Amino acid sequence: MRMRHVWALLGCALVPVGAQAAPAQETLAAPGLAQPVEILKDHWGISHIYAKSEDDLFFAQGYNAARDRTFQLEMWRRQATGSLAEILGKKELKRDIANRLFKFRGNLGEELNWYHPHGNAIISAFVKGINAYIDQTERNPALLSPEFKMLGIRPGKWTPEIVISRFNGLRANLDEEMNTALAVRTIGADAVKDLEHYQPAAVEPESGDHGQGHKRETAAQLAAVPA
Predict the structure, then answer these.
(1) How far apart, in whole angstroms, are the C-alpha atoms of residue 131 and residue 62?
(2) May I ask the CATH class of domain 3-166+200-205+214-226?
(3) 44-61 pLDDT, tens per residue?
(4) This prediction's pTM
């Protein structure tokens, strides 16, 4: 049976459609999940996603990323598909041509599974989550950030090919990556982790934080209900 699901975005007590809602709660329908998924956003603005299946987890990650970074994802999509010149003009034409030349043309399923044994399923679920949010912006353009109105555009749909695209914007942090690799070779991974402080600061666990020490500021739940 096809399921429809609800994401209550602005509340702490989150419920499926038909249940009693908290006053500050907003509900949005998004098809694609099998079971409820909870997203906790801590006071650093970092989302912590709790799901009962890998598929639901990465669907929710895609949805959440699109909700937080719609314009950034649209720019990445255009770089990956070689369509930046449509909105930024001739100066981007050479980049677009190069990105189209770099497009992957092999067996996509095999390529995705090189990244992870479940790579095909993971990336497909992630893309479905992104597109679920884009579907919502099509029904409600007010969800879009000001950049879309300024440029007179709407976000396009993602495909798995876009996730693994080799567009040359990925070189942006090349120096940082190289310096990290050289440091790991020189002083070891543990020392680099210590110096760079990759881990979040410790926070005292609070009730309902799944024991992970994440201070909950806002919560959201994608809840599956029959269509």
Answers:
(1) 8
(2) mainly alpha
(3) 888 889 899 999 999 999
(4) 0.69
